[in-house]
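name: query_chain
kind: protein
chains: 1
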Amino acid sequence: MSRPVILVVGAGPGVSGSVARRFARDGHDVGLLGIGEEQLRTLAGEVEDLGATTAWRVADLTDEAATTRAVHELAGELGRVDVLHFNPSAFREQDPLELSVPDLLADLTLGVGAMLTALQAARPSMSAGARVTATGSMAADQPWHRAASLGVQKAGLRNLVHSIDAALEPDGIRAVSVTVRGTLSDEGAFTPDRVAEAIHAAARQPESGWRSEIPYEG
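structure:
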């Protein structure tokens, strides 16, 4: 039986890299999709050092065709997708009086719309027992007005994950967003590694009591 596979969308340093390494330590092979070639190459090496097979692709996640093609290639190369993790968001320091509609929609395309693209492309490679996870944020409930689009992205992503979970449940696939209620830091309860541990635990929660949103309070 082949090893399980996690596909990390929006891969790079920070939480996404910690998620890739955490699942690699749990016996998963790892697919990486992101925009930074050097970051992906470095992360792939770290994952391989943990004994995982890895494959990576560079793609602009706001480009539906490029993202779809990359996900298909990664799923084909690794053979399956058991966990699809979605991490990207756009940080734009503009308040509601500065933020334009085109810029808001562009940010939503990355922070929410790309989830649809990745999911729809990965779905043929997912079977019963597969999981969809997402990095959420307290910005969904407590937005900072100086980064107005981020709160909208995170609220939209959480809402979308609830719908994904309901849509996939009949097929035995579940989805969960982990709402990080704190600021990422190099030390303490909100390091990327600690958040990744919470995401890993959320993906492994018992299906009988499944929750499609889990807060991480640190």
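note: DSSP finds six helices and seven strands in the chain.
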